[in-house]
Amino acid sequence: MPTYVFRCAQRCVDVEEIHAMATVPTEVVCPACGASAMRIVGSPALGTGNSPAMRAQDATRATAEAPAVVSSVPGVRRRATPVTTNPLHRKLPRP
């Protein structure tokens, strides 16, 4: 069942109540001041959920808005063994 929000004329704290869509009232009694509180139109709760597909979509959207920043340059990996074993290649200049 959907949650409806009601607000009184004195601007007390909004009242949230759950009603069936067929029997939702247009006004309720404000618990803070006792005046009638009218129903207000709010934004729907779209895109909320805890399914694996929703988590993957949220993670993808988060990387598009705030990409990961590299904090340092990756290290250069050198080979432990020489590329060649020819002794003449040892005399060549190294970069």
TrEMBL record:
The lineage of its organism: Bacteria, Bacillati, Actinomycetota, Actinomycetes, Mycobacteriales. InterPro entries: Regulatory_FmdB_Zinc_ribbon (IPR013429). Residues 1-42 form the Putative regulatory protein FmdB zinc ribbon domain. This is Transcriptional regulator. NCBIfam families: CxxC_CxxC_SSSS (TIGR02605). It comes from Gordonia otitidis (strain DSM 44809 / CCUG 52243 / JCM 12355 / NBRC 100426 / IFM 10032). Residues 65-95 are annotated as: Disordered.
